[in-house]
Amino acid sequence: MNETPKDKSGWRIPRRISITLAILATLIAIFYAEEDWRGKHAWEKCKRELEAKGMVLDWEKFIPPPVPDDQNFFMASTNILLRFHKAQTDAESAAATQSSWLRITYSTNSFPVFDTAKTGPLVVAEMMVESSATATPSAGGSHSLVVKLSAADARKQLQDLIRRTVGRGVAGAAGFRFSEQQLSNLAPAQIGLLSDTMPSVAELEGFIPEDMVTNVGHLRVEATDDKKFFQVVLTGAHITAAADYLKWSDRFEPAFDEIREALKRPYAIIPGDYSQPFLIPIPNFVAMRSVAQTLAQRAQCYLLLGQMDKALREMTLMHDVCRILERPPAGKPITLVEAMINVAIMGLYTSTVADGFRLQAWQEPQLAALQEQLKKVNLLPQVAAAFESESAAVCFTLINSPPSVLANQRAIFFGTSTNLLQKLKDPEFDFLTFAPHGWVYQNVVVHTTQMQKGIKCYDLANQLIFPKTTDEWDKQVQSFNKWNPYFSLGATFLPKLTKATQTLAHNQTLVNEAQIVCALERFRLAYGNYPETLDALVPQFIEKLPHDIIGGQPLHYRRTEDPPSPGSGAASGKFLLYSVGWNETDDGGQIALKKDGSEDRENGDWVWQYPVK
Predict the structure, then answer these.
(1) Structural contact between residues 111 and 249, judged by C-beta atoms closer than 8 angstroms
(2) Residues near 521 by beta carbon (within 8 Å), at least 6 away in sequence
(3) Rounded mean pLDDT of 216-237?
(4) Of 576, 563, 570, which is closest to residue 517 (Cα–Cα)?
(5) Residue 575 pairs with which residues in a beta bridge?
(6) Do 57 and 156 have their domain in common?
(7) CB–CB of 292/321 below 8 Å?
(8) 191, containing H or E segment
(9) What is the domain range of residue 136?
(10) Higher confidence at residue 517 or residue 28?
(11) Which residues does residue 283 pair with via DSSP β-bridges, in sequence order?
């Protein structure tokens, strides 16, 4: 039976739709095949070129070799493994929670603290004003003083008395302030002021400037009901006596001794699976920070109490504990986070060294030991190696993970939503799930090429960092079109190179300056003054002078018998030592400040701010 024209017309539309869909599917398949081939070809070409330049892109070469348990820091004890290894399973988390070993928690209620913010102003001195023609006020007691306000040295006399009364103080590494004295039992100084006219509160505060209290708190002068009497009060500070903090933190001494013993082992490799880069075992950075802060604060307290050898013992452990982050025997960290935690700890270390100079505590034996420790600190290779390992990790993960797995890892790694509906609304999830794999290859090309350019910001052979190259790198990355399928994903995984490099350069500069300052102070102890030039330190006090890692020239140095003019921003004291800083310009030792008063590291010089006074 023949089909009618109507029947033929009924089949024609579905057939056309089927043919159209088949053609469309074929075109899509060709498109995917073409893009996959183009992407893979671009990656293979890029990989050959970068590996010819010495860049390592094979993740397997970054996997640490197995080491004997009896030579591995992390296997020294269950305590060390639990506390210094970030838990990856519920069982590990539960075990770490149940362990009280080296559990450091800071709060104002965790150890004895004298808190003027809660108890009210602390009276530091009581002042009575009388006319020069009347009877002289009583001047009994070791902290008493009678001074004529019109005398040329009146201001210095008052400042010295306040300093002796309050005692020295330091700002602790974990946010607390420490004093060498028990301020809760402070006996106010008795001061007699001789003046023909009654001074105002503002005039008296001019004689007792706040900055003379050296990190303890805020001073102000208050009037009383008796117009002749004034009080100098300390306010707005959380202050702990150095002896109290040491007594509280002595509970960690057994753990610190255990760490010291474990650090005698040559290797520090966390046992586990390193085959998946973003799932590798990593150190417990919170524990590392807490240990470093506690050791720094114990050293600060020992310095306040004049116990320099004990301070050096804590400093030595803080220096040595960074080996954990260097992952010997590989000699380089696996992740950029590890490298930057190491940079941060060394910044804290040099800051504590500087506190010892400000307190005039370090002597020849400690100076020689600190100088030797500082000489061994070289942060540049670790950070540069971390950039390279991060690049290999990203390449491996993007290329070898199935789209669905990669999308889930991307969501977990960057903390995005894991709900399916929310994922489908996420352009990056859609890209990873549905885009040709060749586009992933193209993004890997962008990522590795930019990382290779980033590594060029460092000259490891000559110990240099190039700020302009780093800033140009950052501008180029910022200019990437986030909607370009060849760029968007690769750019997402690029690290904050400029911020990391600037922090690295600044902290390594402080390390280099601290090494020179140790030599300068040893020279002064031997000869009674600082040298005219740094060359005089070689070779008796320092084997080789570290240069400025910005520009490669010698660090700038000069003796300054007189302090600089107020507001200049330069450090005062007997010498000035500085790097030209990130702007690569010699600003004469000027420190640039932000609106909030903090140092502007992009401008001005990087000055050693605590020379001996």
Answers:
(1) yes
(2) 357, 362, 367, 612
(3) 84
(4) 576
(5) 559
(6) no
(7) yes
(8) strand 189-194
(9) 117-242
(10) 517
(11) 85
Domain-embedded: residue 550:
no
Instruction: Judge whether 589 and 607 are in contact, CB under 8 Å.
Output: yes
> What is the C-alpha to C-alpha distance for residues 421 and 61, in angstroms, rounded to an integer?
39
* Strand 556-559 to 575-579 pairing: antiparallel
Pair 121, 226 in one domain: yes
Q: pTM, whole model, 2 decimals?
A: 0.85
Q: Is the pLDDT confidence value at 318 over 90?
A: yes
Number of structural domains found in the chain = 2
Domain boundary among 242, 267, 293: 242
Burial of 42 (0-12, 13-18, 19+ CB in 10 A): middle
Distance, CA of 292 to CA of 348 (rounded, Å): 8
- Residue whose entry in the numeric block shows the structure tokens 């024609």: 12
Range from 116-120, 252-256, 498-502, 522-526 carrying the lowest mean pLDDT: 116-120
Q: What's the burial of 368, exposed, middle or buried (CB within 10 Å: 0-12/13-18/19+)? A: middle
How many CB atoms are closer than 10 A to CB 205? Answer: 17
Which of these ranges, 202-216, 466-480, 544-558, has the smallest mean pLDDT?
A: 202-216
Which helix (H) or strand (E) segment is 504 a member of? helix 497-527
DSSP structure class, residue 554: B
Average predicted confidence (pLDDT) for the chain: 85
Q: Are residues 53 and 137 in the same domain?
A: no
